[in-house]
Amino acid sequence: MHRLLRNAANRGRLARPLLLVAGLFASPLALAAGTGTGTDTGCTALTQEDGLQPLPGCQWLDGHLELDAASLASLSYDQDGLAAVYAGGGFHYVRADGRQLPVITFDNGPDYVVEGLVRGRVGQRIGYFDTQLRQAFPGTFDFGWAFDDGVARVCEGCRPGTPDDHGHIAMVGGTWYRIDRQGRPAMDAGTP
User: Fold this and answer.
1) Looking at the chain, which runs of residues are DSSP E strands?
2) For residue 67, which of 93, 105, 34, 35 has the smallest C-alpha distance?
């Protein structure tokens, strides 16, 4: 059963990078064709069909998204009620009611919802949020992996290392430990 759930969570992992690459190439062309105004909205929406596409009615202002009613209505929401928008140098999940959350980039796109939780940005730290974009527990961490069987690996004091030949950046140093879904330590500190 666990393998089935994991496979469901991984569905689309191979298609996502291809869609993003296609969207990155198509987006400048679509912006140039645009509405004739030549103005960049500063936001793109991630769609399953076309990758990243311009999102009229969306702006990146003072460090957060501003979406009008038409842009909210035009988004493609997934089974969790979330739509992915790229703006301000990162991905954000948006709900139809306008609630939004900056999330980490993972596999060239917004973080996946795993076991009902997604990793969101809280300043320069990471917190865990449910699909209503409410923080699941008050703790934040320098880094954290997605939950797996009710436990997530997190660190305090870690930092990004040197990128490898493929651009992947490992987190190095710090104290690593596991937490449960309430944010409580689940195993001995220092266990990777």
Assistant:
1) 43-47, 51-54, 58-61, 64-67, 83-87, 90-94, 100-103, 105-106, 109-110, 118-122, 125-129, 143-144, 152-156, 159-160, 171-172, 175-179
2) 93
**Residue range(s) defining the domain that contains residue 73:** 2-101
Residue 135 pairs in a beta bridge with 129
Residue 168 within a domain: no
What is the tens place of the pLDDT at every residue in 47-95?
989 999 999 999 999 888 999 999 999 999 999 999 999 999 999 999 9
User: Does residue 59 fall inside a structural domain?
Assistant: yes
The DSSP secondary structure of 83-126, one letter per residue, reads EEEEETTEEEEE-TTS-EEEE-EETTEEPPPBTTBEEEEETTEE
Classify residue 41: in a domain, yes or no.
yes
Please give the tally of structural domains in the chain.
1
Comparing CA positions, the residue from 41, 39, 88 lying closest to residue 62 is: 88
Global confidence as pTM: 0.76
In a domain, 177, yes or no: no
